[in-house]
Specification:
There is one protein chain. Helix content is about 20%, strand content about 35%. About 10% of the residues have low confidence. With about 240 residues, it is α+β, with helices and mostly antiparallel strands. It has 5 helices and 13 strands. The longest helix is centred in the N-terminal third of the chain and has 15 residues.
Length: about 240
């Protein structure tokens, strides 16, 4: 029952919110476009880097439902070779990598930017031939990755900038029937009605309020009312 009361409290808090909360992803991605993953291949001629040799965590941002870890990149990638960061990053469905990089000289022969999947050993990448890239990399396969850059040009290039992992909190949804609150201050009663209905019971909001308050007054409720109302609505 305590878990049910916490659920009702959370639902009431959501109902009472008067500010519009935008999806965190919209804010996170505002200045970056998605970069198409062109191909999947295998990594060859690989050099590994770590915090001591050219990659370090420089910031962590924890927001409403997301975490962003940003890493520095200061690599010299020789012609025809790859560099892979040794830091393991996990990307679930919806998570992605954001890159903000510059290349010198411009990799006219191409540079592959992406992630090496530790589960299947494949390199998921997008190819660029410009001097800069500020984009999001989304992979069709979730799992553990290592960030990788492959230089397919015939000359060495210096890569500088950052890459970030954007991880969203996982969530689950329940098939709960939605009931509108019938009076201005009956959000708590509507939440009790929805929770009870999900558990297979049915009471009207008027019945719940009358039982808890003694009459169908248009008043709000607190934890004691939630507890009493939920016990009544579930015939407990």
């Amino acid at each position: 029952m305590r878990k049910i009361i916490k659920l009702i409290s959370a639902l009431v808090a959501v109902v009472l919110m008067v500010t519009t909360v935008s999806a965190s992803g919209l804010n996170v991605e505002s200045s970056f476009e998605d970069l198409s993953i062109d191909d999947i291949g295998f990594s060859e001629n690989v050099q590994y880097v770590d915090e001591m040799t050219g990659s370090a965590l420089i910031s962590t941002e924890v927001g409403d439902g997301y975490t962003i870890n940003t890493y520095s990149v200061n690599w010299t990638v020789t012609a025809g070779n790859s560099i892979i960061d040794t830091k393991q990053i996990y990307l679930a469905t919806g998570d992605y990598i954001r890159v903000d990089l510059s290349f010198s000289p411009t990799p006219t022969g191409g540079v592959k930017i992406g992630g090496y999947n530790l589960s299947n050993g494949r390199f998921y990448y997008a190819t660029k031939t410009s001097s800069t890239v500020s984009s999001n990399l989304r992979f069709s396969v979730s799992g553990a990755y290592l960030f990788e850059i492959e230089n397919t040009s015939s000359f060495d290039i210096v890569v500088s900038g950052t890459y970030s992992t954007i991880n969203f909190e996982s969530s689950a949804s329940l098939d709960v029937t939605h009931y509108m609150q019938e009076k201005t201050n009956w959000c708590w009663a509507a939440c009790i009605q929805m929770c009870a209905d999900y558990l297979g019971y049915y009471k009207t909001q008027t019945q719940i309020v009358t039982y808890v308050k003694g009459s169908d007054v248009d008043e709000g409720g607190g934890d004691e009312e939630y507890y009493k109302g939920m016990k009544y609505a579930t015939n407990d």
